[in-house]
Amino acid sequence: MGDWTIADLEDWDARIRAKVEAFGLHPYPQDFEISDAEEMLGYMAYSGIPSHYGHWSYGKAFEKLRTLYAHGVSGLPYEMVINANPSIAYLMRDNSLCLQILTIAHVYGHSDFFRENFYFRATDATNALSSFRAAARRVRGYVEDPSIGAERVEPFLDAAHGLSLHINRNPSVPRLRPGEERERLLRDAVAPPDPWASLHQPHPVVMPDLQRNPPSPVDDLLLFVRDNNPYLSEWERDLLTVVDAQARYFQPQIDTKIMNEGWASFWHREILRALELPPGLHLEFLVHHNQVVRPHPGGLNPYHLGLEIWDTLDARCVGDRSLLFEVRRAERDVSFLRRFLDADLMRKLDLFEVDQRGEQRVASKVSSEDDWEAVKATLLQNVGSATIPVIRVVDADHGGSRTLLLHHDHDGRELHLEYAEHTLAHAYRLWGRPVLLATRLGNKEMLLRRDAEGFSAAPA
Amino acid sequence: MRTSDGERSDRSATDRKRHREKLRASIRENIADIIAEEAIIGRDRDRLVKIPIRGIREFRFVFGDNTPGVAQGDGSTEPGDVVGQAQRSGPGTGPAGDAPGDETYETEISLDELTEIMFEDLELPDLERRAMREIVSDHAARRKGYRRVGIRIRLDKRRTARERIRRLVVHRGRTGNELASPEQRLPFHREDLTFRHVTSTPRDDSNAVVICIMDTSGSMDTLKKYLARSFFFLLHRFICTRYRAVEIVFIAHHTEAREVSEDDFFHRGESGGTMISSGYRKALEAIETRYHPSLWNIYVFHCSDGDNFESDNPSALECATRLAAVANLFGYGEIKPGGKRSYESSMLHLFRRLDASNFQALVITDRTEVWPAFRGFLARDRAALPSEEARD
Q1: Torsion sign over Cα A96, A97, A98, A100
Q2: Nearest-by-CA chain B residue for A412
Q3: Residues B190 and B331 placed together within one structural domain of the fold
Q4: Cis peptide upstream of residue A202 (ω within 30 degrees of 0)
Q5: How far apart are CA A83 and CA A87, in angstroms?
Q6: Are the CB atoms for B374 and B235 separated by under 8 Å?
Q7: pLDDT reported for residue A266
Q8: Which residue in A57, A358, A366 is closest to B58 by CB distance?
Q9: Does the structure show a pLDDT above 90 at A82?
Q10: Between chains, do B60 and A382 touch, taking CB under 8 Å as contact?
Q11: How many Cβ contacts (< 8 angstroms) between chains A and B?
Q12: B23 vs chain A: nearest CA distance in angstroms?
């Protein structure tokens, strides 16, 4: 243990909480748990969830983390904080008092973000952990059920994990039932009332294909399979629900990494300044703080980028920080960067586009007068869910043979073919009938197909 | 604010075990390539070896390697600047999970574990052992449940305390109230004491000697020696898993044979012609003087490129017959990196006349054949066992 006792931490926690309230942050009630390195690795492998279903991929994550840690390639994070009400945070036992104070303040920043940011509303923080626990128990039940067993659960989970990230990217767009969706399509097909109808060509009415399932392309692959493959067993449907719920729970964290880390770093700095630490602690704090938010040349440190933008926003606020709170409530990384990362800041940060040429990484565009918008566009493609290809279900009964047709929305980036092949095999396992994926490879429209015979690719 | 409960079970243990199993399966699939790696052959048993293992990949739809990214510079980056080496698709480059590409990484594994994996899929029966040689050499102690009686050192304090608490609860339930005062204690009882029980199983063990004979004549070049060495390595490893005390004898021969050190065996080149019988005689001599068949399991393997003097052939065959009679397993491996073109002139032709069930002659033409050849060699031993035939 470091140079502190539990009583010290509780004392500092109370002082920090007073500052948190004074600054107007609104975190969940907070639980802290002090853990050693091994336990931290364990939590990290399961993304911090205290009770999570078992799967070998988490064993792999653990081994990987431990190897990196043991070889000194990566350190452990100072803390982990869980989006839950009450929130749980894990503190590293080996940290010094100063680091613990910094960490506790940082945790409150995250917790405030979890509670107040729009995109976290759907995560149901109050019940999240208990529903994870219930899901873990059910999955264990399936594994122990002699009529199911690990040898069927594991490959099914492998397959479900392969598609789990393909979910609706904007939780503010409600998920309509097929009936409601058809009504919407019909409504949209009819021309809006036009007071100048006599002056215009009448709008042609294009009737939507109401027979098609889904009526319009669907983002949620796992849920679509669950609801439209009648041959799945109950336990299989349940596994799809569980895996989907987990991906949905973590999606906002993926989508707000830069904002969220910047926000927490911004506030831990504000809080520690306001605490008026004794000089020794303060100096140590500055060292740690700079360590965390320093730029990573050749890479991109989300703490640094996030904090820089929050600082420029804070500079705009004179006495009234309501702008900050408003932005924290309404944005996620893509919109946050689009709105507030301007050419000046990009130049100050020396952001550039990096391309791979042979064995080397080369700066292809820098944030110059001509190119900064292109660099920014590339950046927006590389944050959060934008790093995941958009793949939608277009037709569940393609060619009248219950073949699943998926469509990749090509945005200039190609799919990795080998990965696509194996992931289609996952989709085939879940769907039980041939699966097609329309995509573009080397400027040619291609149709990838996976069926009982195996994988094939043909020009569309 | 609380400290984590150190007693909590290690929850990732099951998932780690399963991942490890999958890794082992993938090692097993590629074993022929892995064991042919130069780095593995001829290592100490406790040393860790690094072997390239392809990580178990988790497939998702991801973008290909050539998608551009954004990075930060030191303030003076110009278009065209080289900012680093292309990453060999390391893990964790984005939130999408695993980076695609060649996820091969080196894994450290102890030689013992590798050997275990290697022989796991052979499903070999225990090799032939003669009763005379078996010596009860070891007692393996193993925990097995709990007992009410035992020696002091095996007292399980935790369980003992639990027994007492159990009695306390029963006592409370019966009298309907707490103990009247702290002075009224409920001491430990004889019945509370719980001891760990340990059983020991005697293990049968025996001795084995591996006799490696190699042709070191001028025609055996580095590649041939390397292939021979791979084979000897496997044989030695295998014998080590089956017997407790394993000795190894190296015999190098050209027209004359002598016992040499391991280093000389593999590295010192010689020249001249080949008389295989000399090597066999030397082996017979060693068996006679030091490794009597009634006390030792004997494994003999000979590697050569097969270019023997014609005149030596009858005597070689005779010695080989005598070796087969005393050895558990006797093998001849012909190393022909260029293919099998001189088959008819080779020793293989001659050894067809050797009629012994524990003799096996085989050809190795390149390094990927070492493992299949080795399997075939041991299969010979299996076929020689009557009990095994009955099982098949």
Answers
A1: positive
A2: B67
A3: no
A4: no
A5: 6
A6: yes
A7: 97
A8: A57
A9: yes
A10: no
A11: 221
A12: 10
Q: Is the pLDDT of residue A373 over 50?
A: yes
Given A334, A355, A376, which residue is the final one in a domain? Answer: A334
Query: Which chain B residues contact residue A297 at CB under 8 A?
Result: 71-74
Per CB-CB distance under 8 Å, the chain A contacts of B3 are 6, 33-34, 93
> What percent of chain B clears pLDDT 70, i.e. is strictly above it?
67
Euclidean distance between CA atoms A35 and A403, whole angstroms: 50
Coil, strand or helix: which one is A251? helix
A401 and A310 fall within a common domain: no
User: Does B74 sit within 8 Å of A162, measured CB to CB?
Assistant: no
pLDDT, position A81: 93
**Which of A32, A57, A385, A426 is the best mutation test for B, with the most CBs of B within 10 A?**
A57
**Contacting residues of B for A90, CB less than 8 Å apart:** 4
Q: What angle do CA A388, A54, B15 make, to 5 degrees?
A: 100
User: Least CA distance to A40: which residue of chain B?
Assistant: B4
Could you tell me the residue range of the domain that residue A366 belongs to? 341-386
Instruction: Give yes or no: residues B188 and B265 share one domain.
Output: no
For residue B46, tell me if it sits in a domain. Answer: no
Closest B-chain CA to A37: B4
B178 and B256, same domain (yes or no) = no
**Contacting residues for B152 by C-beta, under 8 A, at least 6 apart:** none
Q: For residue B188, is pLDDT > 50? A: yes
The mean per-residue pLDDT over the stretch B23-33 comes to: 73
Instruction: Count how many domains chain A has.
Output: 3
| Final residue in a domain of this structure, among B201, B224, B247 | B201
Q: Is residue B287 part of a domain?
A: yes
Mutate to test the interface with A, among B15, B24, B85 (most CBs of A within 10 A): B15
- Domain count of chain B? 2
Residue A347 included in any domain:
yes
Task: Indicate if the pLDDT at residue B233 is higher than 90.
Answer: no
In a domain, A420, yes or no: yes
Q: Among all chains, which residue has been given the structure tokens 């990795």? A: A416
Mean pLDDT lowest among B11-20, B156-165, B274-283, B339-348: B339-348
- Whether residue B229 lies inside any domain: the answer is yes
- Of B201, B231, B247, the position where a domain reaches its end is B201
pLDDT beyond 70 at B48: no
Q: DSSP class of residue B47?
A: S
Does residue A202 form part of some domain? no
Predicted confidence (pLDDT) per residue in A253-277, tens digit: 999 999 999 999 999 999 999 999 9
Q: Which of A33, A56, A74, A261 to mutate to test the interface with B (most CBs of B within 10 A)?
A: A56
* pLDDT over 70 (residue B385): no
> To 10 degrees, what angle do helices A302-316 and A333-340 make?
50
Asked if A79 and A100 count as a contact pair (C-beta separation under 8 A), the reply is no
| Per-residue pLDDT, A172 | 75
Instruction: Specify whether B377 is located in the same domain as B279.
Output: yes
* B3, B17, B63 ranked by CB distance to A389: nearest: B63
Quick check: B70 and A379 CB within 8 A? yes
Residue numbers in A near B59 (CB within 8 A): 162, 419, 422-423, 425-426
For residue A216, being part of any structural domain is answered with no
Q: Are residues B166 and B220 in the same domain?
A: no
Instruction: Specify whether A440 is located in the same domain as A367.
Output: no
A245-264 b/e (C-beta count within 10 Å ≥ 16 → b): bbbbbbbbbbbbbbbbbbbb
Examine the domain organization and report whether B182 and B318 are in the same domain. Answer: no
What 3-state DSSP class applies to B185?
coil
CB contact under 8 A, A388 and B76: no
Domain housing B286: 206-391
pLDDT of A314 reads 95
Length of chain B: 392
pLDDT at B136 over 80: no
A350 contacts B61? CB cut-off 8 A: no
Q: Are strands B207-215 and B245-253 parallel, antiparallel or unpaired?
A: parallel
* Shortest distance, CA B22 to any CA of chain A (angstroms): 9
Mutation target for B interface from A32, A60, A388: give the one with most B CBs within 10 A.
A60
**Mean pLDDT (chain A, rounded):** 91
Asked whether the beta carbons of residue B15 and residue A55 sit closer than 8 angstroms, the reply is: yes
ipTM of the complex: 0.91
Given pLDDT bands bounded at 50, 70 and 90, which one contains residue B102? very low
